Amino acid sequence: MAYEVGEKSQAWFERATRVIPGGVNSPARSFRAVGGDPPVVMARGMGPYFEDVDGRRYIDYLAAFGPLVLGHANSHVVQAIKDHVDEGTLWGTPAPKEIELAETLVASIEGLEQVRFTSTGTEAVMSAIRLARAFTGRPVVVKFEGAYHGHSDGMLVKAGSGASTVGTQDSLGVPWGVVKDVISLPYNDIAILEETLAKIGDQVACVLAEPIVGNMGIVPPKDGYLQQMKELTHKAGALLIFDEVITAYRFHYGSAASLLGVIPDLYALGKIIGGGLPAGAYGGRYDVMQYVSPLGGMFQAGTLAGNPLSSVAGLATLEVLQREDPYQRMAELAKILEENILEIAQEFDQPITINRVGSAFTVFFQENPVYDYTTAKMSDPVKFARFHRLMLERGIYLAPSRFEAWFVSAAHTRQEIDKTLEACRESFRELSRG
Fold it and tell me: What is the C-alpha to C-alpha distance for residues 44 and 71, in angstroms, rounded to an integer?
């Protein structure tokens, strides 16, 4: 029997559509790309599980699109929030916990000499770009097709993730004056980056990249690509910005940049550093950060930036990650999923490709390698939509987009992995029947 959203989910969604455009507060939450709305409305999260408003239980691989590296309602994080909430949630003044979180980030991320908090990853990227433009005195940003860097105007130029899922690479409402200063190039193609910087390098303020792309699916860089990117960027007199909103603290305790051996001039951070509450940050070289107001003329502010409660949750999350170091176990569980899903798909003659880095991976419904946005778009949307529905029917919650990742959290155990593989087998069997 095909999966049907429960009656209570439907009722809540109907209420939502009357007061929220499309019934969702992010298009990435919509189910339009995987068989139509309504989406499932969740009531609670517990460890590696969701429970929806109808009482159905799901193994969660969404992880809130990445930040829940410890799973839902981790006891240490929850207790830290409870212990602090009576002292207030927002002060609008400097606070010890934001300073402690800043110290923790600077100590654990190579090349992060100073940091400034924001409320979201979108704001972090937007601010880092503004800072690069202030420091260099240049207007142009070079980014890469299919990489999603938040929803600020300039970043919605050939963006991935939700923008791709709903069938629009660019957004209405973005003026030409913004778009003309953003150049979007194919990822993993060093020749076209070199050609572009040779032509207009003196106008480029920064090159912005995810060191490991996460929003056209997981796409790692080719060998030597990031090092060459940095060399070419610096040769042009521009700054290199790594968007590590997804990747920081996901693959080890620190940045993906340090794992890959290429340190940028600036970082944009988010997701995990908020411990499940809203948080973002940008930072990097000391000399560049001196341009930020009140020291310099690059203005950025935010009433909620570095708020005590998000800082407490972020600190508690990083404490657990440093103390328990769950990264190898998470990667091993993700590897078990990768290897077995490939075998099951082959058994039922379903061509797929899996890109995995550590505890995050993407299943592409195609047989060719995926190394950029063009190859990622070859993944069959119809098959993915059907697979998503079949897995949901069997109690496995995946992101409702073929361009997103599966995230294994520290809360997952071999028991959840085995249940997931059983669901995969049944789902691929159904797919093979046409």
Answer: 12
Instruction: Give me the half-sphere count of Cα atoms (radius 13 Å) on the Cβ side of residue 390.
Output: 21
pTM over 0.90: yes
**CATH number for the segment(s) 75-323:** 3.40.640.10
Residue range(s) in the chain whose domain bears CATH number 3.40.640.10 = 75-323
**Choice among 143, 158, 271, 377 that is catalytic:** 271
271 tagged catalytic: yes
Does pLDDT of 154 surpass 50? yes
Tell me: the pLDDT tens digits for 112-139?
999 999 999 999 999 999 999 999 999 9
Query: Is 286 part of the annotated catalytic residue set?
Result: no
Q: Is the pLDDT of residue 167 over 60?
A: no
- SS3 letters for 3-57? CCCCHHHHHHHHHHHHHCHHHCCCHHHCCHHHCCCCCCCEEEEEECEEEECCCCE
Average pLDDT over residues 38-52: 97
Which of 243, 267, 327, 373 is catalytic? The answer is 243
Share of the chain above pLDDT 70, in %: 97
Record: fold of 7-70+326-432: Aspartate Aminotransferase, domain 1 (3.90.1150)
Planar angle of CA 327, 359, 208, nearest 5 degrees: 105
